[in-house]
Amino acid sequence: MEKIELAKQKKQVKKRNRFIFRSAILVVLFGALVFAIVSNLTAEEEAAVDIKEQAPDFQLDRVANNEDEVESSLQLSDLEGKGVMLNFWATYCEPCEREMPYMEELYPKYKEQGVEIVAVSVDATELVIDKFVDHYNLSFPILHDKDSQVLDAYGIRPLPTTYFIDENGVVVDRVLGELSLERLEGYLQEIVPKGT
Amino acid sequence: MNTIKCSTCGHQNKEGTTICEKCGKPLDNDQQGTLLNMRYDGSSIRSKTKNRSIVDKIWNFFSSVKVGVTLIAIALVASALGTIYPQEMYIPQNVDPALHYRDQYGLSGQIYYQLGFHNLYNSWWYMVLIALIGISIFIVSIDRGVPLYKALKNQAIKRHPNFLKRQKLFGEYTAYQTEDKTRFINNLKKHRYKITEKDGHILAEKGRFSRWGPYVNHLGLIIFLLGTLFRFIPFMYVDDFVWVREGETAVIPSTSQQYYIKNEEFIFETYGNDDEDAIFEEALQNTSGPVPKHFETNAIIYEDVSKDVIGSEPELKEVKSGEIIVNEPLKINGLALYQDSYQLNEFQTMSFKLHETDDEAEEAIVEFTVDLTDPESEYVFDNGYRIELNRFYPEYELNNGEPRSVSNYPRNPGFVFFVYGPDIEEREASFLAIGQNIPSGDNQYKLSLTDFGVRDVSGLKVRKDLTLPIIGLGAFIFMIGVVQGMYWQHRRIWIHQATDRMYIACHTNKNWYGLTKEFEKLIDGTSFTMVRDQEKKNDV
To answer: What are the phi and psi torsion angles at B341 (to 5°)?
Structure first.
C-alpha cells in the first residue's frame, strides 16, 4: 500500500513539474511573439513621443510675431501649469495652412482658460515664416526649429503633428495630420488646467 | 499516467512506448512479422499521450510535425505571393501606392494592394506565421529530442529476438564458428563501430551524433529568429537617414541629438574625365548620360557637449572627420554613416540686377545677391533704391493659379520682388523664377538674374546592426546541423546470441544502401551470409 501511495505521489510531482515546465516555455514563446507584433506595429508609428509620456522639454527662438515680447526664446517647461497645444508645421504644408486659422480663432478664448498654443515651424528660412504669419495674422507664439533638433527629439514624420499636453507636461493626445475646427476645440477642452 | 508492462521482462513502460525500454521486445503483440517503426527508437512521444490541461493541449498542438509542416507550407506560399509584384518599398516614393498598383498591374494589382500584399513581409499576420513556426520548432525539438536522447543513451544491449526479427535487415545463423564471430566483431571495430557487449549479446553502433543534426539545425533557426527579434530593440538596430547640404551641420538621427554631422564637401566624379578612363571610351560612347564613378562626402562629426535643453544652441566638439565613400562608412559610437544618395546642384544663392526695362544694354542700377538659405526681406541701396523680397518660394509650383512652395529646399526658387525707388511712384512688383520674369504691369524697371551658386546635398544612411553576429551564428549552427544530419548516418548492428543460433539485425536512420554495402565488407572472411532485406517481399 505504501509503495502505491509513494508512486502516486511521485506521479503527482512529475505531473506538476511538467505543467510548470510547459507553461513557462509557452509563456516565454508567446511573450516573444507579442513583443514582435507590438514592436512591429509601434515601429510604423509616425512619432516617437507617445500619449501618457512626459513631453520632452525644449527651447527654441521665437520668430515672426515677436516684436512686443521681451523674451526672444521660449522653453516648454516655462509653460508648466498651463495646458499646451504643440503644433509642428511648415509653410509649404497645405493641411498645416488650413488649420492655422482655426488655431487663431480659438486662441484668445483658450488663452484665458490657461491654454497656450505653440507652433513649431520646421521651415528652413525665417523669411517664409514671417510672411506666412503676417498673412494669417497669427498671434500665438511661433518657434523656429531651424536645425530640426526638436523635430528629431519628438520623432515627427508627417506634418502637421499636434501634441496636446496637460498642465503637468504629460501628453494627453497626439494628432497626426490635419484637425478640423470642432476636433481642435474638443482637444483644447481636454487640456484646460483643472484649477480654472 | 498509465503504464504498459512488458510481458517478457516485466518492465513498466510509459504509455505510448512501442518497444520495451529494457529488453527491446516489441510491445504491439504483432504476429504478422510487420517491420518495427524505429522512429524515436520506439520511445513514448510525450505529445502522443493524453491531453490533460489547456497547457498540454496547446503544447501538443505545436509539437505536431503535421502542424509545423503546414505552417511552413503556408509561409512558403505567402512569401511567394509577396514576389508577384514589387513590395511597397520598391515602388517610386512619390506615387500613391493605391493608384500605382492599379495603374501598373490592372485589376490583379488592385486586389494585390487591397489584400495588403504590397507590404506583406511586414504585415502582422506574416510575422505571426513566422513566430508560430518558431514556436513549433522549439516545442517539437523538446518534445522529440529529449525522449530520443534518453532512449539512445539508455538503450539495451541485449534485445529480444522479436526485436531483431522485425528489423528491415535481418539474418539468422546456425552453422558458424567462434572465429567467425570474433572476425565479424573485429571487422566492426575496423569500421569504427563502438562495441558494447553483455553476456555474448552485442550492440555495435556508430554515427549516433548524426541523430542530433535536426535538433542542432532547429537550435540554429531559433537563434536566427531571436536575432531578427532583437532588431526591434533600438540599442541593437538602427536604420535611419539624413540629408546634409554642403557647408551645413545636421543632427544625426537616432543619437538623441548627441551627434551632429557637417558636410564639408560632396565629391561626385564621372567616367571619362581622367586619362586612366581612356580604355572605357568606347563603352562610354554607347551610354547616353555621364556614368558616375565615385561618390564621397567629406564630413566632420561633432558631439554636443552642452547639457542644455533640446533646441538650444549646441556646443559642438569635433570628434571625428574623414571621407564617407560607398562601402567605407564613417563610424561613431557603433553607428555607421554610409554614402547612400545625393542631389547635385541645389541652388544656394541667386544674384540679380535692376535695370531699366527698355535698356537694351541692361546696365545695372543696383546688384544684389539673395542667400537662399537665409534670405533677407529687404535690400537697401545708397542710391535710393530699395528692393523688398515679398514672397519666397524655395520649390515653386503653381497650384490653382497661386504660386506656392512644395518643400523647404531651393530646388526651383520663385520670388516676388517689390522695387521702390526715387522715381517710382508707389512700387513695382515682379515675379521671378527659373525661366520666368513676369512684371506686375507696365514696369519701368526690370530685375534680371545675373548669377547663381549651387551646392550638392549628400544623403547618408545611418546604420547600426548588432544583430548580425547573432544571425550569423544562427545560420552557422543551422549549417552544422544540416551537415551533421546529412553526411553521417546512425548505424546500429545487434547480435543476439541464442543457445543454438545467432541473430544479426541492422538499422540505420538513412542510406540503407550504404549499410548493405558496409555489411558486405563486415562479413568478409567469415562464413556469415548477407542479411536479408525483409522489405523486399520477393527476395529468395
So the answer is: -140, 175
